[in-house]
Fold:
Amino acid sequence: MTESSLTDSSRGGRTRGGDAGARIAQTVRAGIISGELPPGTRIRQEDLADRFGASRVPVREALRQLEYEGLVTVIANTGAWVSRLTLAECEEIYQMRERLEPLLLGMSARSMAASSLSHLDDLAGRISSVDSDVDAFLRLDREFHLATYGGAQTAHLGELVNKLWNATAPYRRAYVSRWNAEARRIAIEEHHLMLSSLKDNDVEEAERILASHIRRTRRQLARHPDVFNATASHDGFTRAAAQRFA
Structure:
């Protein structure tokens, strides 16, 4: 399983219309993960069709794919919105991640090359230098974790982990934006500890650190229930947003 397979959860072969649907889905997916489209944002089919010069068919295909991934909620004859999670739903997903991601890490670590460890070392160093830049931290943190899973060859687990990451992305962003210096230091230190264990071929310790890393985020999110009550900052997938993520 390569890192690219962890960043696009699309299914099956594609026709020409399917290619357009995949492009639209990737644009909206990127907007949701980046925080440009917060939970509750209305996604208007006509705006997407106009932006991409497409008919409603690939737009509907894109929305069906995003609904499958849990990123979009579609209500028949009403419309589509960026999905919201309750605190209980988010906790459940993080509990799944606590158990599944160490398994995926262990599968990946068995075939992790020296070049992969060097790449992780570089990413860990870059994460340490972002200071309070939330966007940079989240982008590099995602790249770091998905790179640790890149050596795993899986039929289902990699795609499932990717879906869980994407579903919780807006809430992790809200949580990280509230970090103080100590919370940031702990997260950075855990990256280095996990990497050190991988370099020592101590896979069990790396798995333990990862589970603790995810568990800590889950517990901290539970202390901020207001994160789950936030409303979308705008209504509709704007042309400017589409241009930024096209």
Notes: DSSP finds ten helices and three strands in the chain. The radius of gyration is 18 Å. The mean pLDDT is 87.
